[in-house]
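Researcher: We're teaching a course module on how sequence relates to structure. For the next exercise, students receive a sequence and then see the predicted structure as tokens, so they can try to spot secondary structure elements on their own. Here is the exercise chain.
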Amino acid sequence: LNIRENTFDEIINSHTAINIRENFKQGKKDINCRQCWSIEEAGLDSKRILDNNYRNEDGLLLDLCMGTTCNIKCRTCGPTDSDQWYGDWKSLGQGDTFNTKDGDTITIEEIAPDKFKTPDIFKWVDDSKLWDNIKTNIKKINRFYFTGGEPTVNIKHRELLDFMITEDVAKDIVLEYNTNMVGIPDSVFTQWSKFKEVHLGMSIDGIHEHFEYIRHPGKWNKVDKGIRKVDTDIRLKNTTATYTVTLSIMNIVHILDMIWWHKEQKYDRVNPNIIIHNLYAPKFYNTVNLPEPIKVIINRLYVDFINDIYKRWPNDIAWCNRTEETLNSITKHMNSAEADPAELPKYIQRQKALDTARGEDWNESLKSISELLTYYRESQIRKSS
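Model: And here is the predicted structure for the students to work with:
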């Protein structure tokens, strides 16, 4: 069943939905929720936990992925999540096709230099049945969660917000987003001001050159400006925001600088705590596959950093404790398995290939991890000579 072809009542009362609810009642971990279980096992708050914090028996939470339309092409992403990735996918020698998460094979067609298109499978977000279904049931919904691609650049998303405002239901509805904060139109801020609450999960994997490298071609100064607007704009008193970081080999060292910088900003509406999502795939970005000597160094860096924050902010023990828990969840994941020696060469190969396509240099933009890995590779050469 899906929202494009079935009513809300049909979906809620489907065999799958009933079975999931029954498993929850019995304390069983349903296989459909395995992503949340793995996140929780790492000591982090999953979407299941976060959603339960806002549970309301009288209304529905509607989770809408707004397709693959995006304005950036993150290093840890791919063509299944961003249409900006098509050219790089081909330049990496991956061919003209890729597989979706549902197993469909998609063909990328180049219709002009650096301009591509894919079949209408990714145009489902424009399906009128979907929007008719939502509009018919709008008074049953009290919470929306928008993801993408980048939802704020999707026209259908903006049209839906306008519909809720016109129907005078916006004041009773909470909006949640997974957004990259790259170039959110000012008109969207005005729309948000009409809603009961707005909560932003800001997907930001670094600051300054780290952000620009990992989330190419986003510009940090534009993102920083947008964050400060969220924090201070008089229209957005109903809005809160949280940094959500995809933690990979690329930023496992830099995250320490990011946390320190973030704390010093003294935001009002932006959560001082950073949410971490450990990356599992592609495997060559997974911190599990860092060489063991590098893991030892990183473990020590984290211990020293934790000691430093307690010294720097002795009057904010709650924040220090939460940050310590977050950092421990990162090292717990990193240390949870031995590195696959086949993955590090793949990491180096991918960085070099994308650097060539994008005119970048990971050794300059990601100096902290580059220097550690260079030291490790040179030590291995010395041992073998």
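Model: If you want an answer key for the exercise: The beta strands are 60-65, 97-99, 105-107, 109-112, 115-117, 141-147, 174-179, 197-203, 239-247, 275-278. The chain has a mean pLDDT of 89.
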